[in-house]
Amino acid sequence: MLEKAKIKAIYTQLDQLYESSVKEELKKNKKFVVFSDLHMGDGSARDDFRQNAQLFRSALEEYYFPNSFSLILNGDIEELQRFSLRAIHKRWKEIYDVFDRFHEKGMLFKLIGNHDITLPFESEHDIKYPVLHSLTLQSKAGEMLIFHGHQASILYKNLNKLLGYTLKYLANPLRIKNYTVSHSSRKQYKIEQRVYHYSSFRKRVSIIGHTHRPLFESLSKAERLKYKVEELCRIYMLTENDSVKKPIKKQIKSHKKELRKLVAKDKKVLFESQIYNSVLHIPCLFNSGCVIGKRGMTCLEIDKNEIALVHWFDKKTSKKYLDKHGYNPHQIENTDYFRMVLNREQLRYVFSRINLLA
After folding, report:
1. The pTM is what?
2. Percent helix, percent strand, percent coil in the chain, to nearest 5
3. pLDDT tens-digit profile of 26-57?
4. Of 113, 150, 218, 355, whose CB neighbour count within 10 A is largest?
5. If 0-12 CB within 10 Å is exposed, 13-18 middle and 19+ buried, where does residue 327 land?
6. Tens-digit pLDDT profile for residues 115-131
7. What is the rounded distance in angstroms from the CA atom of residue 11 to the CA atom of residue 8?
8. How far is CA 11 from the centre of its chain?
9. Which parts of the chain sit beneath pLDDT 50?
């Protein structure tokens, strides 16, 4: 009975988020990129953003702005539980200069997260852009509700204050990374599970961040690899040309190796498909991941009625991605930075499956 009351409260909370969201029509000529969880700090050793800052800036300056993508910053952009807003603005002026270029063109949407939830209460002089709680992209195929993700927890308002004290007085002195703090056991799965069931019930796509775990069509990395291996096996069976079979076999071998590594690192990935407790897999939940990943950053691109999960990486730290079979990394000219599409799907197909299966 208590669990039903919790579910009802969360659904009400997310319904209110949807009703109050800014509505943006997704037209054929409009493109969007969703980034979340930058956790920008003061540039010190405690600043998690520092490692991928130049990669993030180059992706915006050299790829997304020239290609007319609107930029959606989906929460936890500034790390206000560790640093002051003025210190963040001062250190990362070059990043805000890029944000300004998107904002001047009407191509910037900044959403709030739990680590920058106090942003609306800062001095008006220090708030550079309007702050939203959620954004809805409307297309002929269906609607996509974009929000940070912490709103799927009933207690987030109370726990957020406690977490702020923990980060400031414990994590900071001990130099504990935000990446570690955010990934606590199955708490991230609980958030994803709630958003998944809400989205399938309302028959819309939800795009979140918060858990730092990239999801595409409600699937994690391990689950996506399993599907790819099965798909490649089917293609291999139907192919008679040996010259075509050989690269397919290499792709399968590469995916199997990567999957084994994931399982060796964390046995829980074997049970990830069960976390949603759903009879049928419904592709209603997407997560852009984070900008502070150890081997680069991930984001979601929405372009020409397609949605894609994209991994950006620096060859100096992630050279192994250049040798992966089945992917086609694109290098930014005159840099060591690469853009690699991990998954891509038509929105019409995504929403067709949601409407048929949910």
Report:
1. 0.87
2. 45, 20, 35
3. 887 899 999 999 999 999 999 999 999 999 99
4. 113
5. middle
6. 999 898 887 777 889 99
7. 5
8. 22
9. 1-2, 157-171, 174, 179-185
Give CA–CA dist 110/73, Å, rounded: 5
Task: Fill in the amino acid letter for 95.
Answer: I
Q: Output the six-digit token pair for 315.
A: 């060859």
For the record, the structure tokens of 15 come out as 């319904």
Q: Residues with Cβ < 8 Å from 105, sequence gap 6 or more?
A: none
Structure tokens at 148: 């940070």
Name the nearest CA neighbour of 352 among 278, 283, 295.
Answer: 283
CA distances from 23 to 18, 175, 336 (A): 9, 40, 37
CA distance 94 to 90: 9
Q: Tell me the pLDDT tens digit for each residue of 137-170.
A: 999 899 999 999 999 987 664 444 444 444 444 4
CB 355 within 8 A of CB 203: yes
Q: In what order do the strands lie in the sheet with 31-35?
A: 131-132, 108-111, 69-74, 31-35, 297-303, 306-314, 337-346, 330-331
